[in-house]
Amino acid sequence: MIPILNPNTGEAYAIKAVNAREIYMKDFQPIKWYVDPILHEGASLLSGDPKVGKSFLALEIAIAVAGKADTILGSLPVREHGRVLYLALDDGSERRLHDRLQQLTSNDSALCNIDFVYHQPLPSLSSGLINLLDEYLSKNEYAFVILDTFGAVLDATSSNTSVYRREYQETIKLQEIAQKHRIALLIVHHTNKATGKDPVSRASGSHGLTGAVDSVLLLTSAGQRKAELQARPRDAEESVHHLTRLSNGGWTVDGDGRRVVPLDETTLMPSPVMLNEERQAVLDELLKSPKTQREIAIQLGIKPDTARKRLERMELAGQVKALPDGRYEAVGQTEIVPVLLDVPVSEVSDVSSRSAFPSPVAPDDMDHKEWVKATGPVSVPSDLSEPAQLSGVSDLSAQPTVPLDLTRILSGGRPPDKLGQPTLEKPPVSELPPVIQRILEGRS
Questions:
Q1: Contact, 216 vs 74, CB < 8 A?
Q2: Phi, psi (5° rounding) for residue 11?
Q3: CA-to-CA separations, 276 to 268, 282, 318, 422, in angstroms, rounded
Q4: Fewer Cβ close by (within 10 Å): the C or N end of the chain?
Q5: Would you call 309 exposed, middle or buried from its count of C-beta atoms within 10 A (0-12, 13-18, 19+)?
Q6: What is the pLDDT along the chain (444 residues), one digit of tens a residue?
Q7: Could you tell me the residue ranges of all domains in the chain?
């Protein structure tokens, strides 16, 4: 049989299978986060609307990494530092670079650790830039590389190759270089004319580009001097950050400015007071006893690196606390949405105390979840005044109603402990107020 040769290397193609157990038993170094939780090692694509400020954002990250900053954008942790190579190939105006640097920093250490490439004739990705970049990174040590922009090094469309295949083949080479040198490579790119906020569909070009990178970021305008930054890593939680443009052209996160989105709920808007399922599982384990990152990974059946990142982010959110011995413990108070039932005002006198009214904290046990399912959608009303007396009104269906917190009643109306668990067992149904007994009988 005549061997099939690789046109790039001249070597014969061959299929090589690797056993699953061999893969399973391998130890991999943890993924390096440069800016947690928006940028890690590997290739990341930053797309943004024209003039939205994506190059300013890229330069801010470069300054933070090069200048050994602790945080960026006001609050996001910078975890890796080192020299930065900035390929300003789209609009390499020396005056513009000068002005932006003067606007954003006076840190001499940062300035000394950033190298720019501009106003140089360079080949496109498929014509040799990949090999040039690989050779340059082999001879010069950099931690972070910025390619601004992808369009400046992309070949014109060939009639013999599909756009998807061409963009994937060229981008995957950049991703391989980033993985080979264990660096973070940020590729600045433009958005298309779509109006949605999905980071993958908004990137200009085909899905071949977004499919080849390790992380996709999207910077979109959200009004005057406002923007939204979405980060969707391939192997971590998606996050969304609300930003404000500063007078120097840089960005800062608004307040907390961050919500973490579970990977399987990327199109939803979770309540800021609710824990997602993944974090609740961690908290449940820590309620039993403090644990290390490794112990959490074993108990939940997740990768150690995933456990580490989840615990670190929960610590930033004030949900867990790192102990000196390396273990974590649960802290703070978990906000749980109460189960509310609409009850005629005239029957509220059956309830012995105002503990039945909506409370910011309610027990979260199995019975609570069963009642949530049984009672349907829940809502949290504004503060209630004392109910009015409606004597003489016989038609209960015509009376106004007030919401009662069933979870508080089922826990005896007693205050929960620091993590929202009832301090005493719920009372028997026979001891509940008559109005609640009738409601429960009607729902059984």
A1: no
A2: -85, 155
A3: 12, 10, 15, 21
A4: N
A5: buried
A6: 677 887 777 788 888 999 999 988 888 888 899 999 999 999 999 999 888 999 999 999 999 999 999 999 988 999 999 999 999 998 768 899 999 999 999 999 999 999 999 988 889 888 899 999 999 999 999 999 999 988 888 876 555 567 878 888 889 999 999 999 999 999 999 888 777 777 777 887 777 788 889 999 999 998 888 999 999 998 788 888 999 999 889 999 986 444 444 333 333 223 333 456 788 888 889 988 899 888 998 999 888 888 888 888 788 777 888 887 788 988 754 444 444 455 554 444 444 333 333 333 333 333 444 444 444 433 333 333 333 333 333 344 444 444 454 544 444 443 333 334 433 344 566 656 565 566 556 544
A7: 31-265, 277-330, 340-380+398-443
**Which amino acid is located at 374 in the chain?**
A
Which residue is listed with tokens 């994937």? Answer: 168
Q: Which residues contact 306 (CB under 8 A, 6 or more apart)?
A: 235, 236, 297
Encoded tokens for 142: 């950099």
Identify the bridge partners of residue 14 per DSSP, sorted by sequence position: none
Phi-psi region of 255 (alpha: psi -120 to 50; beta: other; left: phi over 0): left
Q: What is the tally of helices (H) and strands (E) in the chain?
A: 14, 17
Which fold does the domain 277-330 belong to in CATH?
Answer: Arc Repressor Mutant, subunit A (1.10.10)
Tokens for 147, please give them: 């390619």
